[in-house]
Specification:
6-stranded parallel beta sheet; alpha/beta; about 40% helix; 16 helices; single chain; about 15% strand
C-alpha cells in the first residue's frame, strides 16, 4: 500500500466513524411513542441543532415546539424548534440566555406532554446557568481553569454540576410532571449519562462528595464565590429514574471504522473507547504498540490498524501555549516516538470537526512527517514543548479540516501499520 493509499484509508475510517453518529441516520429509531399532548423539545450540545432537525423530519405530524442551543456555526435550519447559538468551550451570555429560556420552556410542560431532551457533547458550556451568587464572568474563569488543569473529564464534571442550576438533573427536575425522555450522543469515556453535557437530565451521582481536593487542584485563581459553593455541603436533591437513550457512542463509531479496515484487508484492533491521560504520553505509548506490531506481529499481525477513542488531556504549564489541540499533540508525540519508522501512518481527530479551539479536526502523520517538518525549518520538540502542534502540522500541510460535523463522539485515533 502506497502512502497516498494509506492516507485515503485512514480518512475513510474517520468518515465512517462520523457517519455512524449522524443524527439524520440514527435518531429516528430511538424515539419514544408519540405523545397524546405536546412534544416540547429542548437540548444542548454541538449536535443539538442537527438532532432537532432529525426529530422534525421523523415526526411531521406531532405538535412540536421548543428550543435547543448549539455552538456558533453549528446551527441548521429548523421549522418548529428554535435553535440558539452560543460559545464553546468557554461559555458566554448567549449560552446563559439560552439556558434560562430552556429552563422556562420545560417548566411550562404539563402531565400529558412529552419533554424530549437532545443532549450531546459541548452541552455543558453551551447551556450555562450558574448557581447564585456565582456570576457568568466567574463561571467563565472556572471554565478556563478547568480546561488548563489537566483534570479528567469526570472531575471536570464534578465541578460543573455543582456550579449549575441545570446540570446534575436540574433540567429534569424543572420538567416535572411531564414525561421526560433523553436522546443522547455520547462524547465521554464509558458513556456515563451524568458526564454527557454534565448530566442535565440525570441525578448527580457525586452530589454528596467533598470536592476540596478539586478546589486545591484549581488553585488560587479560582473565584472565591465558586470556591465557597464547591466546598459547602450539597443540598440533597430528589432522586428519579431517567428514561435515557444513547443513539450514538464512541464504540459504535470505532466499530464502523473497523468495518472499513476489514473491507480493505486490514485487521482492526480496537483498544477501547475510553483512553485517557496526557495526550503526548498516549502518543508515546501508542508508538510502542505500533512498533511491536511491525516487529513481532503482536498484539496483532500487520497489516493492521490500532483504533481507539476517548478524551485525553493537555496540561498547560506556566508558559503561554501555542495553537494546538489534544489530537494534534498526540500525533506530534507519536511521530517523534516513531522517528520515521517505515510503514506506519496515523490519524487523530475530534469527531465534531474541531480539535481544541482551532479550525482543524486533527491531522495525519506518516514516515516522512518529521523530515517534512525539518525541511520547513520546524523543530518538532520545540513545537511539542510549546503545545503548538497545530502550527507544525499546518506548516507541513497535514491538517484535516472537515468543518463542523454536527455530531460528537469524542476523539478518533487510528494507527495503521503496514
Amino acid at each position: 500500500m502506497q502512502d497516498e493509499d494509506a492516507k485515503d484509508l485512514l480518512r475513510r475510517m474517520l468518515d465512517a466513524a462520523i457517519a455512524a453518529a449522524d443524527p439524520a441516520a440514527v435518531l429516528a429509531g430511538h424515539l419514544p411513542e408519540k405523545p397524546s399532548g405536546r412534544c416540547i423539545v429542548v437540548g444542548a450540545g454541538k449536535s443539538a441543532a442537527a438532532m432537532a432537525l432529525a426529530v422534525e423530519r421523523a415526526w411531521p405530524d406531532v405538535d412540536l415546539s421548543g428550543v435547543v442551543v448549539t455552538r456558533y456555526g453549528h446551527a441548521v435550519p429548523t421549522e418548529r424548534i428554535t435553535v440558539r447559538e452560543a460559545a464553546h468551550p468557554v461559555p458566554d451570555e448567549a449560552g446563559q440566555r439560552a439556558a434560562a429560556e430552556i429552563l422556562q420552556t420545560v417548566q411550562k410542560a404539563g402531565p400529558d406532554d412529552l419533554v424530549l431532551a437532545l443532549i450531546s457533547g459541548g452541552g455543558s458550556a453551551l447551556m450555562t446557568l450558574p448557581v447564585p451568587p456565582l456570576t457568568l464572568t466567574e463561571k467563565m474563569q472556572v471554565n478556563r481553569l478547568l480546561l488548563a488543569s489537566g483534570l479528567t473529564i469526570e472531575d471536570m464534571n464534578r465541578v460543573r454540576r455543582r456550579l449549575s442550576l441545570v446540570k446534575g438533573g436540574g433540567l429534569a427536575r424543572a420538567a416535572a410532571p411531564a414525561r421526560l425522555v433523553t436522546l443522547a450522543i455520547s462524547d465521554v469515556p464509558g458513556d456515563d449519562p451524568a458526564a454527557i453535557a454534565s448530566g442535565p437530565t440525570v441525578p448527580d451521582p457525586t452530589a454528596g462528595e467533598n470536592l476540596a481536593h478539586l478546589v486545591a487542584r484549581l488553585g488560587p485563581n479560582l473565584p472565591e464565590t465558586a470556591r465557597d459553593i464547591l466546598l459547602r455541603p450539597a443540598t440533597p436533591q430528589p432522586d428519579f429514574i431517567p428514561d435515557y437513550r444513547m443513539i450514538a457512542t464512541p464504540q459504535m463509531s470505532l466499530e464502523a471504522a473497523a468495518g472499513v479496515a476489514r473491507a480493505a484487508g486490514v485487521t482492526p484492533l480496537l483498544l477501547g473507547d475510553a483512553l485517557e491521560g496526557e495526550a503526548a504520553q498516549l502518543g508515546i505509548a501508542m508508538a510502542g504498540i505500533a512498533r511491536s506490531v511491525a516487529a513481532h506481529g503482536t498484539p496483532v499481525r500487520a497489516p493492521a490498524v490500532l483504533l481507539s477513542g476517548g478524551e485525553t488531556t493537555v496540561t498547560i504549564g506556566e508558559t503561554k501555549p501555542g495553537r494546538g489541540g489534544r489530537n494534534t499533540e498526540f500525533l506530534l508525540a507519536l511521530a517523534m516516538a516513531l522517528n520515521g519508522h517505515p510503514g506506519i501512518h496515523a490519524l487523530a481527530a475530534d469527531t465534531d470537526g474541531i480539535d481544541g479551539t482551532e479550525d482543524a479536526a486533527g491531522a495525519l502523520i506518516g514516515p516522512d512527517t518529521l523530515a517534512k517538518a525539518h525541511n520547513a525549518g520546524l523543530n518538532p520538540r520545540d513545537y511539542l514543548d510549546d503545545h503548538d502542534s497545530y502550527s507544525l502540522f499546518d506548516g507541513v500541510g497535514a491538517l484535516i479540516r472537515t468543518g463542523p460535523t454536527l455530531t460528537n463522539v469524542n476523539d478518533f485515533r487510528a494507527v495503521l501499520v503496514l
